[in-house]
Amino acid sequence: MKVVTWNVNGIRARAEQVGALLAAEAPDIVCLQEVKASAEKVPDLLVAAEGYWCYWHGSGGYSGVGLLIRRTFSPERPVFSHPSFDMENRIVVADVGDLKVASVYVPNGGKDYDAKLRFCQALLNWVAETKELGQSLLLCGDLNVAREERDVHPKERKPNQIGTRPEERQWLAALIDEGLVDVGRTLDPDNDELFTWWAPWRNLRQRNIGWRIDYVLASRPLADRASRAESRREFGTSDHAPVIVTFS
C-alpha cells in the first residue's frame, strides 16, 4: 500500500502536478489539503481521476480537503464522511474495510489561535473514540504543528511562535499517544532536516530551511508494516512537499 499526502496550496494551480504524481507513483491513497476550490471547480482530471474513487470537500478559495482511493485497493466505493467538529472544510474521512483514512488540514492559528486549539482538541477526542471502536486509523495531512524543536530549522525558530508552542506540541504528543505512530520520523529518526514546508521567499526551499508540519500517522499494527517514507522537496510548486509512505 502506498500513501501520499500533500498540501497543494490550490488544486487548480497544481492539477497537472497531482496528475503527474498519480501517474508516477500509482498511490493507493491520496490525501490532499488546502485545495481552495469547491467540487465543481476542481479540474475534471481529479474529480474523476481514472481508477480512483474521488471525494472533494471544499466551498471556495480557502481551505478544503480531498481523498482519492484507488479502486483496486477498494473495489467498493468507500463511505466518505465528516466528523461533527469539521469546520471550514478541514477533514474528510473514508472507511475502507476496517481501515479509517482521514485527510486533515489543521488551522494554522494565525488569525484565531483559540479556534485552532478547539479543532485540535476535537480531533484528539475523535481519534480516541475511533481507537475505542477498534478500527485501524491512517491520519494524514497538514497538522500545522512542528512536533519537536528539530522539526523547525534553527534559522526559522522564534520564541513562542504559533506551530511550536508547548500546548500545541502537547496536543500532538497526546494524539500520538492514542496508539498512533509518526511514520516519517520513525523511519528516519536521525534526520534533523526532514522538513515538509518552506516559506516562499529567500530560496528557503532550495536551501531546505523549513518546518516539518505534514504527517502520516498510523495505528501501530499498520505502522509496523511501513517500509519507506520520504518528503519530496524537489517536486511541485506548492510551498509544501508531498509526503509518500509505503507499507508492505
Give a description of the structure.
There is one protein chain. This protein has 248 residues and is an alpha+beta fold. The protein is 24% helix and 27% strand. It has a six-stranded mixed beta sheet. Strands 5-6-7-8-10-9 form a six-stranded mixed beta sheet. Helix 3 runs parallel beside helix 4. It is globular. The model has no long low-confidence stretch (mean pLDDT 96).
Question: What's the layout of helices and strands?
Answer:
Blueprint: E1 2-7, H1 11-25, E2 29-33, H2 44-47, E3 52-57, E4 65-70, E5 79-81, E6 91-96, E7 99-105, H3 113-132, E8 136-142, H4 166-176, E9 180-182, H5 183-187, E10 214-219, H6 220-223, E11 226-231, E12 243-247
Parallel strand pairs: 1-2, 7-8
Antiparallel strand pairs: 1-12, 2-4, 3-4, 5-6, 6-7, 8-10, 9-10, 11-12
Shape: globular
> Which CATH class is shown?
Alpha Beta
CATH superfamily: Endonuclease/exonuclease/phosphatase
Straight-line N-to-C gap = 6 Å
Number of strands: 12
List keywords for this structure.
248 residues; Deoxyribonuclease I, Chain A; globular; single chain; alpha+beta; 12 strands
Q: Can you describe this structure in just a few lines?
A:
By secondary structure, the chain is of the alpha+beta class.
